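Researcher: Following up on the earlier apo prediction. This time include the ligand. It's NAP, with the SMILES given after the sequence.
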Amino acid sequence: MSQTLPPPIPQLLPETAPFTPEQRAWLNGFFAGYLGLGDGVTALSPQEGAALMAGVPALAKGPLDDGDDGEAPWHDQTIELPERMTLAEGRPLRRRMMAAMAQQDCGQCGYNCEDYSNLIVTKQEERLNLCVPGGKDTARMLKSLSKELGDAPAKPMAPAAPEPRALPATTVVTRNNPATATFLKRTRLNKPGSAKETWHIEIDLAGTAIDYTVGDSFGLFPANDPALVDAVIRALDAPPDFPIGGRTLREVLIDGVSLSPAPDMLFQLYSYLTGGARRQKAKALAAGEDPDGDAATLDVLAAIEKFPGLRPDPEAFIESLDPLQPRLYSIASSPKVSPGHVALTVDTVRYKVGKRERLGIASTFLASRINPNEPLRCYVQKTDAFGLPADPATPIIMIGPGTGVAPFRAFLHERMATKAKGRNWLFFGHQRSAYDFFYEDEFAGLKAKGVLTRLSLAWSRDGEQKFYVQDRMREVGRDLWAWLADGAHVYVCGDAKRMAKDVERALVDIVAQHGARTPDQAIAFVADLKKQGRYQQDVY
Ligand SMILES: Cc1cc2nc3c(=O)[nH]c(=O)nc-3n(C[C@H](O)[C@H](O)[C@H](O)COP(=O)(O)OP(=O)(O)OC[C@H]3O[C@@H](n4cnc5c(N)ncnc54)[C@H](O)[C@@H]3O)c2cc1C
Ligand SMILES: NC(=O)c1ccc[n+]([C@@H]2O[C@H](COP(=O)([O-])OP(=O)(O)OC[C@H]3O[C@@H](n4cnc5c(N)ncnc54)[C@H](OP(=O)(O)O)[C@@H]3O)[C@@H](O)[C@H]2O)c1
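Model: Understood. Below is the ligand-bound prediction.
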């Protein structure tokens, strides 16, 4: 693997451009990163780059130099949208737009949250519906904020980027230039009788230029369920082979657009096609209202069925839908143990609304639609914010209930392969010990080998009362504090909305109780752990 060699920086600037070799090198790196051609290829930090470019007047000032202090107190995926917007009140539009994003920096939209909002404000990105985890709430907030944008022409953040068509071919695999890997197999991780459907997925990376490190996430492009696509085509009363941009309507519905929550634009389209009370209803739905109390249940098919008899032009219909975005999964393998392969731990999203079962697009694609040896378009989403400590002797505490265990399987494999001396403590939990103990035999083996120093379990539905990982953490708080005092790094992975907050609260309480600190000092202690990179989260 090419861990030690940085990828080559694509040469994007013409040789005749009026820059010094150093400036040219930095700008090539900047553009490559900006265009998604080479993650992390920028050789200098933004500050170093700015210093280097001092004296190049066209770059010195831009529309983003608005005097904002750069702090982003809303940049926390556990904070709900209304609170994030309150935290961003009074800030420039681009900062409020950033607060409207889901704060995961997950890259599913092709950017991080800050870059996505900056590009919207500078009118270099028109699409307001790209934030997958933020969904309709984020899209609506962005639409409302975008009214402040006015009609001024686009203002580039930096000198106009070269046309993408003029770019040299590149082998750097990114979201915008995915590789084609091969789906190998799926194995059910729950035993029969479980209320959950979770799969261990294996993918063969042979023939791709994909390189990953434990802690990274894996991005993949799913396809919609063909049965749902056919139901949509029937409801539209349109020919499946209707031509759209060189493809057929059916092909575009399979892998080009999302058939999940019906976007406001679809209701807007319907409002143009009908009159009277139906028009009012469509307009209300397009404005985010809920005239019949069913808005949350309206996926694209349900929306078409709500307005029977209307036959939108298939092209206009496709235009009104959201693009089908990739999904991310924490990598559950180490390239040192599984070279050329990647493993994932995927919970299958299925739920019923009325008589129809709704399917999570990517999770059911992996759970049942893709077959062994079939191609899979994918890429790796690198992260600097979630990874093993540089010093292999540093102890680590990993807290990962449910699918949150995925990156910790990878960490343990990596630590085993590198014979790292540091102690490893895993907190795992799920619903029932008899059915939902993922990787049970493997963890027993790692314990026997001395790689997994300690395994603490929490089964939420085995007893009368719920018992979660944070309850187990409190029980063993004294030992946890001792590990922290020894310099342990703490990692949390899994549900962002509730678990991540509760685990952090438990850690604060443990620090206060066993580290003899006041509540405020304990909060500051945990905040400091985060600043030092000793408390890292991969939550979704
Ligand atoms: C960095 C990162 C790492 C991740 N790692 C993992 C991982 O390791 N394993 C994993 O399984 N997932 C992981 N995820 C989540 C994953 O990316 C997908 O979001 C998840 O698999 C669902 O995608 P989907 O396409 O199947 O569902 P979608 O089609 O996107 O549908 C999901 C949506 O369905 C709705 N929904 C779900 N259940 C219900 C219900 N009961 N009632 C009503 N509505 C409901 C919700 O609105 C939900 O947002 C990760 C996400 C990120 C950002
Ligand atoms: N929208 C939601 O409300 C919600 C909730 C959970 C998960 N999810 C999503 O579902 C997907 C997969 O979930 P998963 O299979 O990894 O498992 P999961 O549903 O997150 O559950 C894993 C374990 O965590 C427990 N748990 C529930 N609330 C908790 C809390 N506040 N603190 C600590 N543990 C808690 C669960 O218990 P019980 O199930 O018995 O309560 C279960 O034992 C993820 O994408 C996750 O974000 C969504």
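Model: Residues 493 and 538 are 5 Å apart (CA to CA).
Researcher: Noted. I'll compare it with the apo version next.
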